[in-house]
Amino acid sequence: MHEATVAQSLIEVILQEAEQRHAKPVRAKMSCGELNKINDEVLSFAFEAIAKDTLCEAMVLQIEHKPLQARCRTCGQVFAVDISNTRCPGCGAGDFELLPDAPLVLDEIEFERTDDGQGECRQEDSERQ
């Protein structure tokens, strides 16, 4: 089960950041490409199960799937690939190259301070995974 491994990795990174910040994680946002076979429901279930009895318990995990991108060889426009219409939306050409799929990335972790109650802190663009 690929999702359980992803969930375990996410929790390890989040707990490491929480320990360094002396803060409780409350929300995390991750993203991945369309070709990455992540099932949102299975990942959420695995994340919840692995997070039980840790600081990550009751966290909100948001998952964003980024569309597959292509570059038109005629006009150079970069566009999201639409399987039902594989033509460039700019010039109508059908000659394009697929760009690399977006990687699986932990984009953001939102924390609630646990040491002094001074409010929330946020870490963004964490490319650990």
Average pLDDT number: 89
Global shape: elongated
Radius of gyration: 18 Å
Number of strands: 7
Query: What is the number of helices?
Result: 2
**Cα end-to-end separation:** 17 Å
- Oligomer description: single chain
Overview of this protein structure:
- By secondary structure, the chain is of the alpha+beta class.
- It contains 2 helices and 7 strands; from the N terminus they run αβαββββββ.
- It has a 4-stranded mixed beta sheet with strand order 2-1-6-7. A 3-stranded antiparallel beta sheet has the order 4-3-5, with no helix packed on it.
- A hairpin with a 5-residue loop joins strand 3 and strand 4.
- Helix 1 crosses helix 2.
- The longest helix is centred in the N-terminal third of the chain and has 20 residues.
Question: Key features?
Answer:
129 residues, 3-stranded antiparallel sheet, 2 helices, elongated, disordered C terminus, alpha+beta
Offer a concise description of the structure.
With 129 residues, the chain is of the alpha+beta class.
Secondary-structure blueprint:
Blueprint: H1 2-21, E1 23-33, H2 40-51, E2 60-66, E3 69-72, E4 78-80, E5 96-98, E6 105-113, E7 120-124
Parallel strand pairs: 1-2
Antiparallel strand pairs: 1-6, 3-4, 3-5, 6-7
